[in-house]
Specification:
About 55% of the residues lie in helices and about 0% in strands.
Length: about 140
């Protein structure tokens, strides 16, 4: 049986009226019939539109907002402004790569490239300068003068 866009729309409308998390099979192909494995349903149904995949994605996004770390990170990334100095657990944000800006990431990549070039006094000086630049960028992002 070939599925059309009309069939996808019908399944979308069905999923608006029921709790997809309580389904045990795909309404399109009956994948997972008789099973209750959420993992199987969300990862092995290969339709262009799969209600289980959409439901699982929305569920994970909602769970992320509950965790203080993820909530704080999402708030900063979405609202912009100065980066908080510390994460909700008290650890400085400048040492957590998830909180880095593109500029900080570029400097860290440059440090790794220089370090892989070998050992010499000149390269050690270059790493020191890059580390100072990274710290200055972090100060700027955090709003520290």
């Amino acid at each position: 049986m070939v599925w059309s866009e009309e069939d996808d729309n019908r399944v979308r409308e069905l999923c608006k009226t029921i709790n997809v998390g309580k389904l045990t099979q795909c309404p399109k192909c009956s994948m997972g019939e008789g099973g209750v494995s959420e993992l199987m349903l969300t990862h092995f149904c290969t339709h262009k539109y799969c209600p289980f995949r959409e439901w699982s994605k929305a569920k994970k996004e909602a769970e992320k907002l509950i965790v203080p770390y993820d909530a704080a990170l999402n708030t900063w990334k979405n609202n912009g402004g100065p980066r908080p100095t510390n994460r909700p657990d008290g650890i400085p944000t400048r040492i957590d790569h998830n909180w880095h800006t593109n500029a900080e990431i570029a400097i860290v990549k440059a440090m790794v490239a220089v370090e892989s070039a070998g050992a010499s006094v000149a390269l050690t000086d270059a790493i020191t300068l890059l580390a100072q630049a990274r710290d200055r960028v972090a100060d700027h992002v955090e709003g520290i003068k």
